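In this section we walk through a basic example: taking a raw amino acid sequence and producing a predicted 3D structure, encoded as discrete structure tokens. The instruction is simple. Fold the sequence below.
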Amino acid sequence: MGVGRRRRLYGEDQHPPVAHQGSYTLRLIVTDGGGLADTVVRTLPVGNVAPRARLSAPASIREGTPFTLTASALSDAAADVAAGLQVAFNCGGDMARTARR
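The resulting token sequence is shown next.
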């Protein structure tokens, strides 16, 4: 869905895709078997929320031992990944690292 685009959805529970933040007009038309219909119009504001990730790290390590940090389970990140999402780790001091997705 988007500005000026229309999509017909049928059934009780629908999840129209919303690719960009903005204000969307939703129109619900209910029609009975006799052809009588009613329409409800609502405006739905959609905001961009920050992407989220799960961080996995060892519970403990020995000093001077290399270790791996993993970012997984990214949510609300599809558009952000396409735009060059970066995942940054900072373990203090000069150990900051950045990974592009």
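Looking at the output, two observations stand out. The two ends are 26 Å apart (CA to CA). The chain has one helix and six strands. In the next section we compare this with other chains.
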